[in-house]
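Lecture notes, part 5. Sequence design as translation. It can be helpful to think of inverse folding as translation between two languages: the language of shapes and the language of residues. The source text, in structure tokens, appears below.
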């Protein structure tokens, strides 16, 4: 497996593991589908195709939207708290952009 493909599989595996852990810790909405078999997946044995299928299964549960919504709420709360800090307005703006960018990048 070429180095870049191997790294991509590792990244997908880490992302799937993180999402499965986060989804398990978040109280999912009643409209969310549960797929308990996701917890049983051996992430070390995933190839690119099986990692993609696992990502699709995670997405089908609705957990991604739930976690993204929670992350956006946390970022909004953090940005509100920035207003009462000693940061300059420009620094607060930059910190807020970084926080928004992180949610967009990882969700």
């Amino acid at each position: 497996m070429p180095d870049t493909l191997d790294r991509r599989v590792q990244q997908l595996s880490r992302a799937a593991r993180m999402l499965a852990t986060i989804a398990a810790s978040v109280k999912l909405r009643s409209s969310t589908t549960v797929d308990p078999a996701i917890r049983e997946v051996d992430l070390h044995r995933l190839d690119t195709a099986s990692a993609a299928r696992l990502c699709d299964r995670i997405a089908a549960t609705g957990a991604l939207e739930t976690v993204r919504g929670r992350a956006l709420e946390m970022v909004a709360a953090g940005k509100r708290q920035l207003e009462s800090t000693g940061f300059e307005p420009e620094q607060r703006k930059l910190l807020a952009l970084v926080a928004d960018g992180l949610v967009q990048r990882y969700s």
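The translated text above is only one of many valid answers, since several sequences can fold into similar shapes. The chain has a mean pLDDT of 77.
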